[in-house]
């Protein structure tokens, strides 16, 4: 049995002009110890899909699925209280912007220890020892001193490492990394990606990597899902995706990579071709409201 199984996930938001479908019939599964990449351009529904799985969308969002199972638990039927016991403990998520994800009013140590207090019931001494252990694990120098630091006193790379420490605090079974290197410079991006892959292997977690960077996909993933406008266009193992993509959209994405440019200009994606292909995948596409 897969760690996470999602079938026909649909997410809709109410707007002034009616319901807007942000995710349209996406299905996916993740095995234990597997790295799944979800790739696509901005607005393709990658983050919304995962926020729906985590139960972190606003209450006004309408989320439905034929099947939404995590480690034998039906996420579609459990109560909000039961879901809160899972999120942050067995299912954890690293968000795009570390400086915005950490609370500026509390120290780094408090924010790490809060997870351990809520989900693990640790006393103060054990929480502090575990927090130091986690900061050491993610490569933060002088972890004892950093516990009393506020997020604004740390760099973007250090804040992202703190976010990883918080996510790993309770040894989760599934880790979702939502473009975890977006706000970081290239050198730090490499360090964070290497850290995530190493920790995933050590902890034996399932890892979902949300990204629009095909280089990240090639280096980290076992399988890949390509999304466009809320729909899954293709799913394949990494080697097959790069060597023989089936979807016109995937081929266009790969052709648009700078390394694949053959002239002075990068190739562009034929929107009409992709729209026609996407329409064939599922029901007619819904345009976002103006």
Outline the structure in words.
With 290 residues, this protein is an alpha/beta fold. 39% of the residues lie in helices and 23% in strands. The protein is globular, with a radius of gyration of 20 Å.
List the helices and strands and how they pair.
Blueprint: E1 4-15, E2 18-30, E3 35-39, H1 46-54, E4 62-64, E5 67-70, E6 73-74, H2 80-86, E7 91-94, H3 98-101, H4 108-120, H5 124-137, H6 143-146, H7 156-168, E8 174-178, H8 186-203, E9 206-211, H9 214-220, E10 223-228, E11 231-237, H10 238-243, H11 248-255, H12 271-281
Parallel strand pairs: 3-9, 3-10, 7-8, 8-9
Antiparallel strand pairs: 1-2, 1-4, 1-5, 5-6, 10-11
Protein name: ABC transporter ATP-binding protein
InterPro entries: AAA+_ATPase, ABC_Ni/Peptide_Import, ABC_transporter-like_ATP-bd, ABC_transporter-like_CS, P-loop_NTPase
Subcellular location: Cell inner membrane
């Amino acid at each position: 049995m897969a760690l996470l199984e999602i079938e026909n996930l649909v997410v809709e938001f109410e707007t002034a002009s009616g319901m807007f479908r942000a995710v349209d019939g996406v299905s996916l599964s993740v095995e234990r110890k597997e790295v799944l990449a979800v790739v696509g351009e901005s607005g393709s529904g990658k983050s919304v899909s995962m926020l729906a799985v985590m139960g972190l969308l606003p209450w006004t969002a309408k989320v439905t699925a034929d099947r939404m199972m995590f480690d034998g638990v039906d996420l579609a039927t459990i109560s909000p209280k039961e879901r809160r016991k899972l999120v942050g403990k067995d299912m954890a998520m690293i968000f795009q912007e570390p400086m915005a994800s950490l609370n500026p009013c509390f120290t780094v140590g408090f924010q790490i220890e809060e997870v351990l207090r809520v989900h693990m019931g640790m006393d103060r001494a054990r929480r502090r020892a575990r927090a130091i252990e986690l900061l050491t694990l993610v490569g933060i120098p002088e972890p004892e001193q950093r516990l009393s630091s506020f997020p604004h006193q740390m760099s973007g790379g250090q804040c992202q490492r703190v976010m990883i420490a918080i996510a790993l605090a309770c040894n989760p079974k599934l880790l979702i990394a939502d473009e975890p290197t977006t706000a970081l410079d290239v050198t730090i991006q490499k360090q964070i990606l290497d850290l995530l892959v190493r920790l995933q292997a050590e902890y034996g977690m399932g890892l979902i990597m949300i990204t629009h960077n095909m280089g990240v996909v090639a280096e980290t993933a076992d399988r890949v899902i390509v999304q466009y406008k809320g729909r899954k266009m293709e799913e394949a193992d990494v080697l097959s995706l790069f060597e023989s993509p089936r979807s016109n959209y995937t081929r266009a994405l790969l052709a648009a990579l700078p390394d694949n440019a053959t002239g002075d200009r990068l190739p562009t994606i034929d929107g009409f071709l992709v729209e026609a292909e996407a329409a064939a995948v599922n029901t007619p596409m819904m345009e976002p409201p103006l």
